[in-house]
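Design request, tokens follow.
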């Protein structure tokens, strides 16, 4: 049951992250190739493969010389980091629109867009940095360090 749950969450995780990168490729905020759709299956295959490759590289690099417990904790921490990368691109694209001089009047004011983009980037950077902060290790009473 746990394997099915992990497979489902991994599928949603990779698909959701790839979808954000796919849309960024369509809008030309990222390379155009990321916005391509597979001719037979109508899926964003290049974006999915890109996210899968980046995720696999980061995960495999972090497991060198690790125990099972360390690998599990690393996976949890990397899940936050990898998900936040997509949001960093999203807010960077919003900042590009909010601070550009060429875009005309829109539904939202420039001030609101600028606030949202700067706040989103700040929250994303904080979210990416949080897992890498050192944690205080609890030492059971009676055990010397």
């Amino acid at each position: 049951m746990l394997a099915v749950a992990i497979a489902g969450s991994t599928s949603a995780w990779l698909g959701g992250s790839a979808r954000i990168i796919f849309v960024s490729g369509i809008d030309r905020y990222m390379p155009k190739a990321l916005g391509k759709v597979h001719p037979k299956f109508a899926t964003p295959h290049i974006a999915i493969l890109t996210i899968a490759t980046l995720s696999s590289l980061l995960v495999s690099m972090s497991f060198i010389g690790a125990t099972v417990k360390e690998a599990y904790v690393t996976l949890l921490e990397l899940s936050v980091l990898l998900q936040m990368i997509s949001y960093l691109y999203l807010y960077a694209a919003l900042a590009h629109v909010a601070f550009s001089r060429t875009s005309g009047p829109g539904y939202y004011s420039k001030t609101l867009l600028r606030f949202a983009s700067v706040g989103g980037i700040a929250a994303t950077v904080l979210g990416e940095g949080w897992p890498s902060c050192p944690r205080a290790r609890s030492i059971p009473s009676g055990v010397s360090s």
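Comment from the thread starter after seeing the answer: thanks! The chain has four helices and no strands.
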